[in-house]
Automatic annotation (TrEMBL):
Highest taxon above the source species: Bacteria
Glycoprotein listed as a keyword: no
Entry annotated with the keyword DNA-binding: yes
Start-end of DNA-binding region: 48-67
Name of the protein in question: TetR/AcrR family transcriptional regulator
Length: 204
């Protein structure tokens, strides 16, 4: 009987991690931390697998046990470092939806301003890596399906939902680029209000 199936475990409890499991998790986290540091210093395009493994203190073979490319590391960083959004966090349409839209923009703006290296790496990857750009579009397509399924914009057509989602992504990306890349002095509250007003008008 293995450590993860010991008879004294309570039913439904999470399985215990073996030493090998813990080492694997620590190595994976080390790779992601090294990659984020490298992306922040050199930019996504310039960073190589060798840069990442050197910073992480591992060999290339170990890297490829966990990831098949630097794009895969960046996708994992995006998925694990971003706040887990609940259904309640999604912006809602209709005349009373403005508070939910503002709360959404506040959350996403605060996340990216607290993780500027991640934003910049994601922005660069979408511009330089066709596979990463395709994955980003797939995420947007999933948003369209989710908004339709959850009736996020009551009475809206699919075309109207697509427009709202395009505006949402574009506004966030544009303001983040102004703040984090160009250093343009735009006041946070004013920016959130402007994005909220624009998306609310589209989602009514």
């Amino acid at each position: 009987m293995t450590e993860t199936t010991h008879a004294t475990e309570t039913e439904g409890a999470a399985p215990k991690l073996t030493m090998r499991d813990r080492h694997r998790i620590m190595t994976r986290e080390s790779i992601m931390a090294a990659a984020l540091e490298a992306f922040g210093e050199r930019g996504y395009v310039a960073v190589t697998i060798d840069d990442i493994v050197r910073r992480a203190g591992i060999g290339r073979a170990t890297f490829y046990l966990h990831f098949d490319s630097k794009a895969a590391v960046l996708r994992e960083l995006r998925n694990t470092r971003m706040t887990v959004w609940s259904q309640q966090d999604a912006p809602r349409g209709g005349t009373s939806g403005r508070p939910s839209i503002r709360a959404f923009f506040e959350k996403v703006v605060d996340f990216y301003t607290s993780a500027p290296q991640l934003y910049m790496a994601l922005h660069q990857a979408r511009a330089a890596d066709p596979d990463f750009a395709a994955a980003h579009r797939a995420t947007m397509e999933a948003n369209v399906e989710e908004w339709i399924r959850n009736d996020a914009m009551p009475g809206a057509t699919e075309a109207q939902i697509r427009l709202a989602i395009a505006m949402m992504y574009t506004m966030v990306d544009s303001f983040m680029h102004l703040w984090l890349v160009d250093g343009w002095p735009v006041e946070r509250e004013a920016a959130i209000e402007a994005m909220t007003d624009a998306l609310h008008a589209t989602m009514r």
